[in-house]
Design a protein that fits this description.
The protein is mostly helical. It folds into 2 domains: 115 residues, 50s Ribosomal Protein L17, Chain: A (Alpha-Beta Complex); 37 residues. Helices cover 60% and strands 12% of the residues. The chain has a 3-stranded antiparallel beta sheet with strand order 1-3-2.
């Protein structure tokens, strides 16, 4: 019976599954983004996030525990170096899964899995969104305010230059 066995076994024995997830975690840490099937990406999130969370505390014990899972010293160095500095203030949710659609050859759902803090495209999109309204009237007012602002700045700079001369 399958009572309370809820994680996806991915049609593999435990040793094969653990080796595959460790290799995928290593690739995720080194490359910051990998493409895989959706079920593997969801299983990888469950496997990788506790390992990434362990990197917040840079102790010998943490490094040894992470190395026992990954078996790759370059990935451990990258995780405790560059990745740990970016995730230091994040309380969780270190990975993001983006669905890509169906693979044509076998109709398998595909997905990206990536480290959240390392995606430049998502960071740029959130930084751009400052205005949400697209009213024509508000743009004219904004342009008028921009035109008046340089004139006011020039007047302030001229007043600031004259003030030290009189003292």
């Amino acid at each position: 019976m399958r009572h309370n066995k809820k994680f996806n076994h991915l049609s593999r024995k435990a040793s094969h599954r653990n080796a595959m997830l460790a290799n995928m975690t290593t690739s995720l840490i080194l490359h910051k983004r990998i493409t895989t099937t959706l079920p593997k990406a969801k299983a990888l999130r469950v496997y990788a996030e506790p390992i990434i969370n362990r990197a917040k505390t840079d102790t010998t014990e943490s490094r040894r525990v992470v190395f026992s899972y990954l078996q790759n010293k370059y990935a451990v160095t990258e995780l405790f170096g560059e990745v740990a500095t970016k995730i230091a203030n994040r309380p969780g949710g270190y990975t993001r899964i983006i669905k890509l659609g169906i693979r044509p050859s076998d109709a398998t759902p595909m997905a990206f899995i990536e480290l959240v803090d390392f995606d430049e495209n998502m960071a740029k999109d959130t930084a751009k969104k400052s205005r949400t309204r697209r009213s024509r009237r508000s743009t004219k007012k904004a342009e008028d305010a921009k035109a008046e602002a340089p004139a006011a700045e020039v007047a302030e700079e001229a007043a600031a230059e004259e003030a030290p001369k009189s003292e």
